[in-house]
TrEMBL record:
The lineage of its organism: Bacteria, Bacillati, Actinomycetota, Actinomycetes, Propionibacteriales. This is CBS domain-containing protein. InterPro entries: ACT-like_dom_sf, ACT_dom, CBS_dom, CBS_dom_sf, CBS_domain-containing. Signal peptide: none annotated. It comes from Propioniciclava sinopodophylli. Residues 7-63, 81-139 form the CBS domain. It holds the Pfam family CBS. Residues 142-213 form the ACT domain. Keywords: CBS domain, Repeat. It comes from the Bacteria. The keyword Repeat applies.
Length: 213
């Protein structure tokens, strides 16, 4: 799956010379916590609710409410934003975006093609994609199967499911540290008793089962 398949296209942005109250209002109105910061049509930074909170006067300040409001109104987005943000292209794999966000400990990536902002991808987008890829909400059954970590194991697994007319809709492999791996199999039928028996006979171990109505 590519970033362009899950990103939010034409995202809300804020100008670098906008005030902090303007950025707060945009985040509140659009129900977002991060905004790409634009200057002359290019992404020059990212501002988050956390950035704003970190730059607001402490609640223990001796300043009056009017003084605090005045200072905030004079504070520009450019003074608070994270500069030179990490970006990613729309044709990058979603896994690449996930790794970048995880390693950089950030929650959003501007998606930039040829210097132009075309979208944003967030942690929530990645989680939604994971749920979709794994088919967790799809009708049918999910089996967690212990399989030998050898060539041809998936082919044998497919042959058993095919014998029962079960369509494999989703498949994931979690490789263990030993000689077996866990295969998560999403199939289109909730009736798996006979299939499970044949899997056991073929040398597989059914370690878990979940039925989605």
């Amino acid at each position: 799956m590519f970033v362009k398949n899950k990103m939010t296209a034409n995202p809300w942005t804020v100008r670098a010379d906008a005030t902090i109250p303007e950025a707060i209002a945009t985040m509140k109105d659009r129900h977002v916590r991060h905004l790409p910061v634009m200057d002359a049509g290019r992404v020059v930074g990212v501002i988050s609710a956390g950035d704003i909170d970190a730059n607001l006067p402490s609640k223990a300040t001796s300043l009056s409410v009017n003084e605090v409001t005045y200072l905030i109104n004079k504070l520009s987005v450019a003074k608070v934003m994270s500069r030179d943000p990490i970006t990613i292209g729309s044709d990058a794999l979603l896994e690449q975006a996930a790794v970048v966000m995880r390693e950089a400990k950030i929650e959003m990536l501007p998606v930039v093609d040829d210097g132009r902002l075309v979208g944003v991808i967030t942690e929530s987008d990645v989680l939604d994609a994971f749920i979709e890829i794994m088919g967790f909400r799809d009708h049918g059954a999910r089996l967690v199967i212990g399989a030998p970590d050898v060539p041809g194991a998936l082919a044998r697994l497919g042959a058993v499911t095919g014998k029962h007319g079960a369509n494999i809709q989703h498949l994931a492999v979690y490789r263990g540290s030993g000689e077996t791996s866990d295969v998560v199999l999403g199939i289109n039928t909730p009736d798996t008793a006979e299939l499970e028996a044949d899997l056991a006979e073929a040398g597989f171990v059914v370690r878990g089962r979940l039925e989605n109505a």
